[in-house]
Amino acid sequence: MDRYNKRSPLYLCYRMLHRSCRIVIEGETRILVPVKGHSSQVFYNPMMALNRDVNVAVLAAFLGDKDFTYLDALAATGIKGIRVGVEIGGFITLSDWNRRAVELMRENMRLNDLSNCRSVHADSRVLMDAERFDVVDLDPFGTPMPFLASAGNSVKGMLAVTATDTAPLCGAHLNSAIRTYAAHPQKNEYHRETGLRVLIGAIVRSLAVQGKAAIPVVSYAHRHFARTHLTIEKKVKSIDSVMKKIGYMAHCNNCNNHHPIPGLAPTLQKCIACGAPITLSGPLWLGQLHDRKLACEATAEAERRDLNDARKLLKLCAEEITTPMYHDYHKISKRMKISAPPITDVIKTLHEKGYCASRTHLSGTGIKTDADASTLEEAVLDLSR
Ligand SMILES: C[S@@+](CC[C@H](N)C(=O)[O-])C[C@H]1O[C@@H](n2cnc3c(N)ncnc32)[C@H](O)[C@@H]1O
Ligand SMILES: [Zn+2]
């Protein structure tokens, strides 16, 4: 009997039990999710499939054949943790404080014959304060900040964090960013990367309080969410080293140049290109967003598993240079009243001039480079002649 066949007795039985549910397939996993528009109180968002695909690829690359424990701390239907259990392995714990969510995740464990998996009906902060896991995944409504102290306590190997409060992170809701992240993001052309780095900065600072160094190894922003995977080291030397990568981003509204200022106590500075006053964003993370080797391995995992959108995103991440922020070269072309040349030509020209340059996953018209704004403008102008 094919139990996923829509005419099969087991499927009909599920339909009887869960008139408000339907089965979706993500990766190699079948999940009962609430029917759209039904008043079920269990959360499921199909738009987050990419987040879960990337999660599978990154964890498969990070864990290899190792045995591991995984906590899906805010599990809802359980889809994220169950996918890890089905598609990679490990011992999975799913937790949620919503009773209906716990009932549904139990059905989902049965539906996937998952024996190495348990569900816990609890406030995940209490669970994380009591137990240790190799991998902890936080997938909250909005900001993950209320969960970070407990997650920092619980995690041993990798912390994976989603944030959907992109408006505060990117500087659109400034007071909310100040309250939630104790940071001041500026809303400018690279606000998506600013948001990602404000999030990572807050995670790194919070974990440092727990005596752990958090090192981002794959980080991205997509649609309405930001996501980062961080490896954990429990060494004072590593904590001091990651804290040195917290700082500020200086932006010049006069010449559009930007540059990092490391450290939590920046001295007053002017634009290093034109001397005009600068505005600061931060504190935020100024170090690597990705570990290139792991991002390449995760790209290969996504390819092997036919997770095509995840593969494309991870490939872009793997190819990004580490220089913080980017320039929108279409905006530069518009300001100079010229038509924009192909992005590959601009990047090639910068390479020929001896600079590092790459695309960014954050914008199709974004260029990351260690060249200053005027050098990039020259390159764009030369190509338009
Ligand atoms: C955005 S949903 C999780 C989505 C899920 N990971 C997925 O991929 O579909 C957030 C879940 O966290 C649960 N939640 C919120 N605060 C919680 C807490 N303190 N302890 C346990 N669960 C909590 C909510 O009930 C909700 O089911
Ligand atoms: Zn300037």
Bound small molecules, by name, code or SMILES, are: S-adenosylmethionine, zinc ion
Mean pLDDT: 94
Poorly predicted sequence stretches spanning 5 or more consecutive residues: none
> What coarse outline follows from CA principal-axis ratios?
globular
Number of strands: 15
The largest sheet, given as strand count, sense and whether it forms a barrel, is:
7 strands, mixed
Beta-strand share of residues: 15-25%
Query: Cα distance, first to last residue?
Result: 68 Å
Q: How would you write the strand order of the largest sheet?
A: 5-4-3-6-7-9-8
Order of helices and strands: HEEHEHEHEHEHEHHHEEHEEEHHEHHEEH
Please give the radius of gyration in angstroms: 22 Å
- Work out the helix count: 15
Percent helix range: 40-55%
Secondary-structure class: alpha/beta
Keywords:
binds zinc ion; single chain; binds S-adenosylmethionine; 41% helix; seven-stranded mixed beta sheet; alpha/beta
Write a compact overview of the structure shown.
The chain has 385 residues and is of the alpha/beta class.
Q: How is this structure best described in words?
A:
It is built from 15 helices and 15 strands. By secondary structure, it is of the alpha/beta class. A hairpin with a 2-residue loop joins strand 1 (21-26) and strand 2. The longest helix is centred in the middle third of the chain and has 19 residues, at 191-209. The protein binds S-adenosylmethionine (SAM) and zinc ion.
Summarize the SSE layout with pairings.
Layout: H1 9-17, E1 21-26, E2 29-34, H2 49-63, E3 69-72, H3 79-87, E4 91-96, H4 99-111, E5 117-121, H5 124-130, E6 133-138, H6 145-154, E7 155-163, H7 166-169, H8 174-181, H9 191-209, E8 213-222, E9 225-233, H10 236-243, E10 246-251, E11 258-262, E12 279-285, H11 292-304, H12 308-319, E13 327-328, H13 329-335, H14 343-352, E14 357-360, E15 363-369, H15 373-384
Helix pairs in contact: 2-3, 2-11, 2-12, 5-6, 6-9, 11-12, 14-15
This protein binds S-adenosylmethionine (SAM) and zinc ion.
